[in-house]
């Protein structure tokens, strides 16, 4: 139950921002599939009220099967998780099967929906996924055409029920059904499966081209936005980015740990060796912090908070996590300090708590850092 609650909290998040690849895309596709099913439910209700004229027996079978499929999809997504690489294939497969069911029972109403998996695959950047969606769509076209012809409300029934011209099927204004196509399998393929597959392939090419162009534009915008959020000297996020991140809504009760660094003896280095050496000192300390942040599974973020001050935010972090990061940072610093011709060190402090109190936690970590600096001086 808790897993289901967590899944839907991510799905319904107004501003889903996740570092792991394809998570936001999976959330977007999940929402599309839920909307699709809601629309399918609405049409089903209208058909039950005789607003539409589709055979109820056919519609009910298709709708129940789609409901079962949706439940299986949700269960599998709970087991797999939105973060796993296979989740996107699961989403495309769900879209494909949903289209297959609706097109098999309501063929001439739903023919345009065959392209849905290809459209959804365009959300992702994976070429393999797009090809998978194309193959699934062609399979859908073939299966839904044949199943729809024999068991559903199929447009092919209108043509394949007879094998002669209209003039031989009417007399005195009365429509006569006196002959059935003896070889529907071949005719279905040549006049329905094959041309529709060609259309799907062409749509795939156009869709890929448009998505590629849009993706390049988005990547360029993202790069500009990222560059605006980065500090050029250190390669860390800047203070504006930190303030922006702190303003975004977080889970207030979620745990968080903050580590605060301040470079030691920067003024001495600037006065003795020059400001260029001082800048190198800042960049060197920032580099060690980046190394620590790069080797973790916490999705930490590091910021240049001031001229020579740095902050690391650890989601779900505890005191043990903060101490572990600091210990790893000290080990990285040891060989650097031995080989350096100028004094290179930083005072460090940390604090833990809830995201609701993040500003107080930063202040507490700052105070502990100054306490550490005072002890170093003494």
Automatic annotation (TrEMBL):
Protein name from the UniProt record: Diguanylate cyclase
The residue ranges of the GGDEF domain are 254-378
Keywords noted in UniProt: Membrane, Transmembrane, Transmembrane helix
Question: A Pfam family matched by this chain, by name?
Answer: GGDEF
PANTHER family in the record? DIGUANYLATE CYCLASE DGCM-RELATED (PTHR45138:SF9), REGULATORY COMPONENTS OF SENSORY TRANSDUCTION SYSTEM (PTHR45138)
Q: Which domain of life is it from?
A: Bacteria
Q: Does the keyword Transmembrane apply?
A: yes
List GO molecular-function terms, semicolon-separated.
diguanylate cyclase activity
* Membrane spanning residue stretches: 28-51, 63-82, 97-120, 132-151, 189-210
**InterPro entries, per database record:** Diguanylate_Cyclase, GGDEF_dom, Nucleotide_cyclase, Rev_trsase/Diguanyl_cyclase
């Amino acid at each position: 139950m808790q897993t289901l609650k967590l899944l839907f909290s991510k799905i319904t998040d107004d501003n889903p921002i996740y570092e792991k690849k394809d998570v936001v895309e999976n959330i977007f596709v999940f929402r599309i599939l839920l909307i699709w099913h809601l629309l399918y439910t609405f049409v089903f209700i209208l058909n039950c009220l005789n607003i539409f004229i589709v055979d109820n027996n056919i519609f009910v079978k298709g709708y129940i099967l789609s409901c079962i499929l949706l439940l299986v999809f949700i269960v599998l997504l709970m087991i797999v998780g939105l973060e796993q690489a296979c989740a996107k294939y699961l989403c495309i497969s769900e879209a494909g099967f949903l289209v297959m069911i609706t097109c098999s029972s309501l063929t001439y109403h739903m023919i345009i929906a065959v392209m849905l998996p290809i459209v959804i695959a365009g959300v992702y950047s994976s070429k393999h996924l797009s090809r998978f969606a194309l193959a699934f769509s062609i399979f859908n076209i073939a299966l839904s055409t044949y199943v729809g012809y024999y068991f559903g409300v199929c447009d092919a029934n209108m043509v394949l029920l007879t094998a002669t011209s209209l003039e031989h099927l009417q007399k005195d204004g009365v429509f006569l059904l006196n002959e059935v196509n003896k070889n529907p399998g071949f005719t279905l393929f040549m006049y329905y499966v094959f041309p529709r597959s060609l259309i799907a392939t062409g749509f795939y090419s156009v869709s890929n081209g448009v998505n590629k162009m849009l993706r390049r534009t988005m990547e360029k915008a993202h790069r500009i936005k990222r560059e605006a959020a980065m500090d050029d000297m250190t390669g860390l996020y800047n203070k504006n980015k930190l303030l922006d991140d702190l303003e975004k809504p977080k889970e207030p009760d979620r745990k968080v740990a903050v580590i605060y660094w301040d470079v030691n003896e920067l003024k001495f280095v600037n006065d003795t060796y020059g400001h260029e050496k001082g800048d190198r000192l800042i960049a060197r300390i920032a580099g060690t912090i980046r190394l620590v942040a790069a080797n973790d599974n916490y999705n930490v973020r590091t910021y240049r908070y001031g001229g020579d001050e740095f902050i690391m935010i650890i989601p779900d972090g505890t005191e043990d996590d903060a101490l572990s990061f600091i210990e790893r940072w000290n080990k990285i610093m040891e060989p650097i300090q031995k080989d350096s011709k100028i004094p290179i060190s930083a005072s460090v402090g940390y604090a833990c708590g809830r995201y609701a109190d993040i500003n107080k936690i930063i202040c507490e970590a700052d105070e502990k850092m100054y306490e550490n600096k005072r002890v170093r001086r003494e």
